[in-house]
Amino acid sequence: MKLWRRAWLALVLAGWAAAACAHKPSDAYLTVTVPASGGMLQGEWHIALRDLDFVLGLDTNHDGAITWGELKTARSRIADYAFARLALEALGRGDRNSCLPQLTALLVDEHVDGRYAVLRFSADCGLPPVELLVHYELLFEADPTHRGLLQVIGAGGAQAAVLSRETPRASLNVAAPGRRQQFAAFLGEGIWHILKGYDHILFLLTLLFPAVVRYGAAGWEPRESLRDTAFEVLEVVTAFTLAHSLTLSLAVLGLVHLPARWVECGIALTVLLGALNNLRPVIVRRRWTVAFAFGLVHGFGFASVLADLGLHGTNLALSLLGFNAGVETGQLLIVLAVLPLAFLVRHTLLYRRAFMPAGSMAIVLLASYWLVARVTG
Hints:
- The chain is an alpha+beta fold.
- It has two domains: 3-22 and 197-376; 27-178, no CATH class.
- Helices cover 52% and strands 22% of the residues.
- The protein has eleven helices and eleven strands.
- The protein has helices at 3-17, 49-56, 68-73, 75-83, 179-196, 198-208, 226-252, 260-279, 287-307, 313-344, 349-376; strands spanning 27-33, 41-48, 86-91, 96-111, 114-124, 131-136, 147-154, 157-163, 169-173, 213-216, 219-222.
- A hairpin with a 4-residue loop joins strand 3 (86-91) and strand 4.
- The longest helix is centred in the last third of the chain and has 32 residues, at 313-344.
């Protein structure tokens, strides 16, 4: 295929993918404390200022920065908008009462991905809850992919859940936390996170594209053995898994912290370098070392989901285990979807002379765009 055709195909692929702006998904963090004495519920809700600005227009002078004065002026609008999309109900011994949240303080906090409004509130349920029902609809009308990460702290300990447009309701037993339900929720969240993380997927593709071919004097040539291909994939995927699992755990446990902007720029750079290595191979053997080194960066990206939720003890361990298992499951689904097809067409010139260079060039263009956008803010 002529060079101009490859370049044109790469531009088409990059343009199609550019709609997928890979960045940290929209999350909010809701913590509800249920006193053992049966008093009023106490809550704290962290919502990204960029999300509130999108739906409420907080930046009234349009200077690109939300000041404390602008936030304080919008206090009533923020409370009305948020609490109209949150319903709490308490189940007692045969009784069921609504718990109406009332804003007690509006603060600002810094998270790994920017500034968040902190809505502190109290809610009178009229009875000591045995079970707490949460119905969550924040931002779904503006961003269907938004997630609410919920933590409920009660007499039986802390427990967590993930609320989404598909599953906007959660029922949590205050006295006896449902650990299996929590594990399943974060398992699903891990799968969703990698399948929506386009930069993670593209990096994985830069590892899988060359797995069915071998670079030699004549360029990329097909691997003849399925065993060799499987071994190559096992090496790079295992190295990537171990690396991002390590930094995911360290970041969520609070042992290592990197600014979100550095992490996002680093992830874009790993995608760029991985694709460039397919175009002009520098590291041909032991590609697992590249997968491991770059996987360390991606682990910090995965950690952004759990790091700000403030989980501890069993609650943290269970959520971390479920989320990491979900990430690995999503990763396996991508491998199973891509690898068999790539192995079947590895002998064709279309794959080795067109798809490999054009696909890698498209990833180079898209990763370059991400890198520039993230460096410049």
